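Workshop exercise sheet. Pairs work together: one partner reads the sequence aloud, the other fills in the structure field after running the prediction. Swap roles for the next sheet.
Pair: D.N. / O.F.
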Amino acid sequence: MKYFKRILLSSAVFACFSSQAALIVSYGGQAATDGSGLTSNLIDPSNLLNPANGFFIETFDNATQMIGFGVGSSAYNDPTQNNQMGCTVNALFAGSAIQVNTSGSDAFNVRKGSAGYAATPANDTTCFGYTPAQGGTLPSWITIDYSNILTAGVGINYLGVYFGSIDTYNYIEFFDAEGNLIETLTGPQILGNNGGSSGNQVQPGSNVYVNISNFAGTGFSSFRFTSTGVAAEFDNIVVGLSNRPSQVPEPASLLLLCLGLLGLNRRKIKH
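Structure field:
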């Protein structure tokens, strides 16, 4: 038991002093009160956000459009589903500077409820996005690009997403303002870290709220969901601007925390 505690302490210390070297990926969110399963712990569980706070969200539901934004676009609604009242890509309201790009016209759709080609994330009774659309060409991808809303020196350094029935052929890529690939997070990585099985529609380890942070510099400007099979499903996409009010300890506080852990580790070793 003492050896196990020592490992935990050493790991915590390593995380403190290596936090600028790589992405920090954590798992878990809070229950969303709008019926969409899980959402980010950094926002209100209602998913109703004011962009002035430095966060943006895509819920694919008009009922939870960002405060101050117009009605989203229904252009990507699944054409095979008759009852899609309320499903929209909220980022694409009239006059929006946020861009959504896809690998083709059959690469992306939004719907409510499962179908043979797209499964709703566990416990999500609202609209969700998926790639590819029914019968879409593989590989397929959708990119959400925030470049046009970012001011000089500002990027995005947090992404949260409710990833449903994760498959080994799903992955997320991150790009800088010049379109250069800077990071990739794969389905096998997420499944391995959560004990999930590929494509399971109900297992908690396969339906995970994923939090990605600690990007180098000011962060990323766009990100992409890619799938080489059927399909990648996602909801409650939350991004945080690099200049938003801090959600983590200040550098001095973080240093004190790490030094405290080092001292605790030293005392444990002496005993």
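Discussion prompt: The longest helix spans residues 251-270. What would you look at next?
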